């Protein structure tokens, strides 16, 4: 999945660069549309990528905080 993500990001970058160099409105618009599609695809891949280390750290902190919390004595 990392390879696909890198490829979509690379294609997005290439399309944006080519759109900046394009002198034709139709070509520029098409390149920008493809770049946007590549960005959306890359974001979808990123959303599916598990963030195990970060998630594990957050869960561990939540567990520690919940066990060390001092009860409210009002």
Please characterize this protein's 3D structure.
The protein is mainly α and 74 residues long. It has one domain (2-68). 82% of the residues lie in helices and 0% in strands. The protein has helices at 2-21, 25-48, 52-68. Helix 1 (2-21) runs antiparallel to helix 2.
Question: Which descriptors apply to this entry?
Answer:
74 residues; mainly alpha
Topology:
Elements: H1 2-21, H2 25-48, H3 52-68
Question: What oligomeric state is this?
Answer: single chain
The fraction of residues in strands falls at: under 5%
Low-confidence runs = none
Which structural class do you get from the secondary structure elements? mainly alpha
Spatial extent as radius of gyration: 22 Å
| Tally of alpha and pi helices | 3
Query: Number of folding domains?
Result: 1
User: Helical amount among residues, as a percent range?
Assistant: over 70%
N-end to C-end Cα span: 53 Å
